[in-house]
Amino acid sequence: MKLEKEVLTKIYGGAITASFINAIVDGFQKIFDFGRTVGSAISRFVSKNWC
Q1: Which of 7, 26, 43, 45 is 20 to 30 A from 20 via CA?
Q2: What pLDDT is stored for residue 10 in this prediction?
């Protein structure tokens, strides 16, 4: 089946790819790690345990 030029311009993508899912998961993981770092810093500051 050969598509003509008019039909090709009307095709829309929208599939969720594995790389898109990996990017989303990586973003959530970085936010979670940042929260853990901030929480640890606050905890060390409150308890005055710098080691």
Answers
A1: 7
A2: 74
Mean pLDDT, range 28-50, rounded to an integer: 93
Residue among 22, 25, 44, 45 at smallest CA distance from 33: 25
d(CA 32, CA 39): 10
Of the candidates 24, 9, 39, the one whose C-alpha atom is nearest the C-alpha of residue 47 is: 39
Q: How much is the pTM?
A: 0.60
Q: Is the pLDDT of residue 9 over 90?
A: no
2-5, Cβ contacts within 8 angstroms, sequence gap of 24 or more: none
**Distance, CA of 51 to CA of 19 (rounded, Å):** 39
- Tokens found for residue 21: 């899912």
